Amino acid sequence: MAGSRLSSEEVIAKLIEMGFENSSAVQAVKKVGPLFNDAVEYILNGSCGDCGGAPSNSEYSTSNRKALGKRTLSSAALGQMRQSSILNHFQYTGTPKRSRNNNVPDISISSSEILARPIDDVKASITRVDCGNLKTVPEDLQVCFREEADTGLDWEQRANNLLQKHFGYSSVKSFQKEALAAWLAHQDCLVLAATGSGKSLCFQIPALLTGKVVIVISPLISLMHDQCLKLSRYGISACFLGSGQPDSGVEQKAMRGILIKPLQGLAESRGIALFAIDEVHCVSKWGHDFRPDYRRLSVLRENFNARNLQFLKFDIPLMALTATATIQVREDILESLNMSKETKIVITSFFRPNLRFLVTLSPAFHSCSFAYGEFCGESPHKDWEMSGLAETIDASSTAEKRLALLQEPLEEGPTIIYVPTRKETLSIANYLCDYGVKAAAYNASLSKSHLRQVHKEFHDNMLEVVVATVAFGMGIDKLNVRRIHYGWPQSLEAYYQEAGRAGRDGKLAECILYANLSRIPSLLPSKRSEDQTKQAYKMLSDCFRYGMNTSCCRAKRLVEYFGEDFSYEKCLLCDVCVDGPPKVENLKEEADILMQIIAAHHGQSCYLDGSYDDTYSDSKSPRLMQKPNLRMFVSKLREQSQKFCEKDQLWWRGLARVIEGKGYIREGDDKIHVQIKFPQMTRLGLEFLEFERDQPFYVYPEADMILSMNKCKSYSTFADWGKGWADPEIRHQRLEKRRLNREPRKPRMRKSRKGKPDTRTARGRITAKLSKLK
Ligand SMILES: Nc1ncnc2c1ncn2[C@@H]1O[C@H](COP(=O)(O)OP(=O)(O)OP(=O)(O)O)[C@@H](O)[C@H]1O
Ligand SMILES: [Mg+2]
């Protein structure tokens, strides 16, 4: 097996990251040297004497003052986080052992087996439950249990008892029951349910019921930490297998085989109750967080069926779960995981009635004093009143409940600030720390020990704010989070996932999107194919439109995006529902002019009878002949008619989007743009111009249009620049603005040859000419 060029410490850290005990890791490295694969093999072969030693109790050292200061974890603390050794779960002996204290048996996996099946970088967390009250019938429990189910005995009651015992909840929810029923019937199952609805229990209960192992595939290390941490608190044994986030060949090699051969051994010896694929939208390239390795999980269906493994009576069921899958993504999941034709689809509403969605103009973070107050728990909307809402509430109990939520004060609780870049996690966390806020940064490039500690402190309510990238995005389950989103997310799926971290206790929580409304978002995932680029632009565009919307309930928009019919008229909580839409305006004149100018340029007859008004036609202009974009159309329009000068590019950009939304113009470029860029008229648009000349064109101004009209823009826009310098008042305003906004301009250094005039300046050239004349 190939060695690696890592230091001993790094190899030990990686082994610990995979879930091995510190002592085993140290011993293995001592024995085989800093060779990762050999060390894995050494431990798995059981050569290591004290593998799986119980972790001792020790507290973390904590420093809140500096988010990024060194956060060292004692190895004992690491052990505590890991809950139990991987070896506790990989018993490779013929006879299954089911004692509460897992004596670590020998494991015999050769290196060729380790490399036998390539699955790169997929992480699995393994949940195995000590049998608890079921331990008298451990071995055949699954069979007995299924017989009970077949004869109609009350498995649900058993599940409820276990739920009460381990988690303290009274009963399984109906969607959980459906998923469990599918599992009992050996069916594959796709569970689509809202964030925080309790999907994890669908795969945790099978482990509790059977005493067998449930293998959970998760896409994020943070999520695996989270699940293991929680399960250990409920007294349930769990551990994770994971490579570090930044890829390394060594880790991948180690991961490749671990998921197949040893698991088949595990299925034979201890029994595998279920394969759960959490956050399964990652399988789909149409999803927001596509992970190519997830696609290879189809090997589970191929390798763990009764045809291949004679000791199995039935195929081991697959359970795939997500809260954010559009219809296209769902189809892709079923196909790419090779799930059975009879797969049961369990679906609940994606609506989260206690989340209040808001979109606010982003502040320039570091220079804005309001940020501190907001991130420390003062809601920008805490003074909201109920004005006008009472009439809109219908008499149904759900609406009443939501109304009651609206009256609740926003409780104190930690905040997650999601930011688009790793750099921002650091700068914002530091900024908050400087204000005395207990904040920490979380992004995949930080050390694993730092990330683990942040996670732990977050769960222990020791941190007020975590500033994170998507690495902290999915699945994290903490009850009392209020959260904030800073900057445009890359998709509505990602946004809804991240929003889903908030209000998991069912109490009111705010999901505020601070967005720069005047800039079109452009941040895309770094690694992507051509197809994925198109898809990424499409998703960004949907997200941008969501932010610009001012008239439709935000929750409605979000759930409809996932293909659900929103069963309420509105959520009553979001900024649009509470503030109401802006005043509707008749923008017929503006819409007509813009469309006429577009139609004229493209030589499209504005009026189908050919009698179009060519006031704004300038199809001979060489500049416009090339590839006219919206900006050029607007500049032309504003040049030609003073009447529209007060509306700037930002405003027209918003109007163009509205007109596009009505289907009157369309993108004329092959590429997908976040905002319409090269507009062309559609047939519908031409008909509108021709037949609806006298019809009004009512529009709710969108966020950028409102922003444009509200901002002081007397001489601020680019298009105006260059006009009006002669006016002393205008000149004064511009200079003042430049002074406030910019660093003082550095004087340009001109090299001048001694004694000779510098001919690179006008003054110099004149002097040179004069001196020649002389
Ligand atoms: N039957 C139940 N009764 C009461 N609470 C429950 C029940 N099932 C789950 N919960 C609780 O709901 C919370 C959310 O559960 P979980 O983390 O499984 O959500 P999820 O659906 O996986 O969300 P996400 O999509 O964000 O990962 C947990 O704290 C869990 O304990
Ligand atoms: Mg989950």
Automatic annotation (TrEMBL):
Q: Which reaction does it catalyse?
A: ATP + H2O = ADP + phosphate + H(+); Couples ATP hydrolysis with the unwinding of duplex DNA by translocating in the 3'-5' direction
Q: Where is the UBA domain?
A: 6-46
Q: Could you tell me which residue ranges the Helicase ATP-binding domain spans?
A: 180-343
Task: List each copy of the Helicase C-terminal domain by range.
Answer: 398-559
Q: Where is region (Disordered) located?
A: 736-774
Q: Which SMART domains match?
A: DEXDc (SM00487), HELICc (SM00490)
**What keywords are annotated for this sequence in UniProt?**
ATP-binding, Helicase, Hydrolase, Nucleotide-binding, Nucleus
Query: InterPro entries, from UniProt?
Result: DEAD/DEAH_box_helicase_dom, DNA_helicase_ATP-dep_RecQ, Helicase_ATP-bd, Helicase_C-like, P-loop_NTPase, RecQ_Zn-bd, UBA, UBA-like_sf
Q: What is its EC number?
A: 5.6.2.4
Q: Which Gene3D superfamilies would you find in this protein's record?
A: DNA helicase RuvA subunit, C-terminal domain, P-loop containing nucleotide triphosphate hydrolases, Winged helix-like DNA-binding domain superfamily/Winged helix DNA-binding domain
The similarity annotation says: Belongs to the helicase family. RecQ subfamily.
PANTHER family, per database record: ATP-DEPENDENT DNA HELICASE Q-LIKE SIM, DNA HELICASE RECQ FAMILY MEMBER
Report the protein name in the record.
ATP-dependent DNA helicase
User: The organism's lineage?
Assistant: Eukaryota, Viridiplantae, Streptophyta, Embryophyta, Tracheophyta
